[in-house]
Design a protein that fits this description.
Arc Repressor Mutant, subunit A, 62% helix
Amino acid sequence: MTDISSQGVSDRRNLRSNGSGASANGARQDAPDPCHREELVAYAELLFFAYRDFTSDPDAALEQYGFGRAHHRVLHFVHRHPGLRVANLLDILKITKQSLARVLKQLIDKGFVLQKAGNADRRERRLFVTAKGGRLIEKLTSLQVKRIEEALATAGPGARQFTRRFLFAMITQSDRDRVETLIKLPPGTNSDDWSEGGK
């Protein structure tokens, strides 16, 4: 309900006379720094261009098979987690059942992915890459790993740790623990080193 009390009118007059700098309780409310916002927009643009180039090499390889990025993501996680359930894959990719069904059918029909019933529950659908699928995903991964390795070397000392923390921080907070369990860390690596400061 609109505040029509004399106190409310007085507060609004004070706000107008002081610009956006003061609130009703007298606390200073600074306007957003336009330079800071432009810096953040620049980061968003850098992410766009980085992702564009990060995906360009595997995109070209996938085109030879009539595949796209959805096929790449399915191959990647099924390869990294043999026997992955279809339900879990849906949760990872955040796509519709219809979209995943179409992509999986193409990968299965062309011999890149194998689908088996679960041992404990025959209703479960477990996914595995075939030897053919393994060769393709290794090729795609090598292309992207090479670009990451070159970027880290170019960025200089401290880039690895900062990149890990930044990428974790970019993930929705409620999803970070689950994502961390999906990532296979190098032997001897402490998971705290990867996510510290990102939670």
